[in-house]
Design goal:
Blueprint lengths: L1 E5 L2 E3 L21 E3 L1 H16 L4 E8 L3 H11 L3 E6 L6 H15 L3 E5 L10 H9 L3 E11 L2 E8 L2 E8 L2 E5 L11 H8 L2 E5 L32 H10 L5
Parallel strand pairs: 1-4, 1-6, 4-5, 5-11, 6-10, 7-10
Antiparallel strand pairs: 2-3, 7-8, 8-9
Helix pairs in contact: 2-5, 3-4
Bound molecules: adenosine monophosphate.
Adenosine monophosphate binds next to helix 1, strand 4, helix 3, strand 6 and helix 4.
């Protein structure tokens, strides 16, 4: 069984992002970029399934400009067997990515697609669900445990009241939650090995997908700055402020 793992290149989670002065978006010039953390978890899970012998090939796919090759090399250093870059300089929204992934699902026929539950730049949490709808495949989102059992896959999800386990028939779409696994450190020998792995490039047109954005960003603003706090002398003063100033009790 093949597994397709979509990996997005995003601003590194340690970077404090800055909004562009004209409010059109976030400034990503000279900013450290990395693989979306949930996608690293997805690659790790796919590689673990391969190590268990239930998966034969792990294919990483990234949609975006040529620099996404770096993200694919990282996925291959974790253990993905090959990479596909869907190259475009167009701004990609979740529906466009889901359509590109559907075209690749049709071509590669994977038994599983494991995506991150959300990209930490757009926080959309849409692509996996849209892909499941477009491909008409069963989906299990926010997975905290994945077990392949024959032609079924059992997925445990954290829900409000505890844990829910779903049994899906494959092929299926899964999205990863934070507690699914802890991705391994990428070692230098594996980085070197990854450089020799196969990386194919396709254009959205070759996949027959129109990626024109459907949504327009009106403006992006920084969160309001928090005002300075005050020290209260005692509990009585605190209660008084909560009651009479903040009016929350
Ligand atoms: P989102 O719906 O944007 O929050 O993204 C959810 C997941 O979809 C991500 O964690 C990735 O697995 C996948 N994804 C989104 N955008 C891309 C992209 N440009 N290239 C590859 N995978 C993507």
């Amino acid at each position: 069984m093949k597994v397709l793992v979509p990996v997005k290149r995003v601003v590194d989670y340690n970077v404090k992002v800055r909004v562009k002065s004209d409010g059109t978006g976030v400034d990503i010039a000279n900013v450290k970029m990395s693989m979306n953390p949930f996608d690293e978890i997805a690659v790790e899970e796919a590689v673990r399934l391969k190590e268990k012998g239930v998966v034969t090939e792990v294919i990483a796919v990234s949609c975006g400009d040529a620099k996404c090759q770096e993200t694919l090399r990282t996925a291959m250093a974790i253990g993905a067997d090959r990479g596909i870059l869907v190259e475009t300089t167009e701004e990609l929204q979740p529906l466009a990515v889901a359509k590109l992934l559907k075209a690749l699902v049709d071509k590669e026929q994977p038994g599983l697609v494991i995506l991150g539950k959300q990209a930490i730049d757009d926080d959309a949490n849409q692509t996996g669900q849209m892909l499941a709808a477009l491909t008409d495949l069963p989906q299990a989102t926010f997975a905290s445990k994945v077990e392949v059992a024959g032609d079924k896959v059992n997925v445990t999800r954290e829900v409000d009241g505890g844990l829910e386990t779903l049994s899906l028939s494959t092929p299926a779409v899964i999205t990863t939650d934070l507690r699914l696994n802890e991705p391994r450190y990428v070692t230098l020998p594996n980085i070197m090995k990854a450089k020799k792995k196969q990386l194919d490039t396709v254009k959205p047109e070759e996949l027959g997908v129109d990626v024109t954005p459907r949504l327009k960003t009106l403006k992006v603003v920084e969160p309001a700055k928090r005002g300075a706090g005050v020290k209260v002398p005692d509990v009585a003063a605190l209660v008084d402020k909560l009651k009479n100033e903040a009016k929350v009790i």
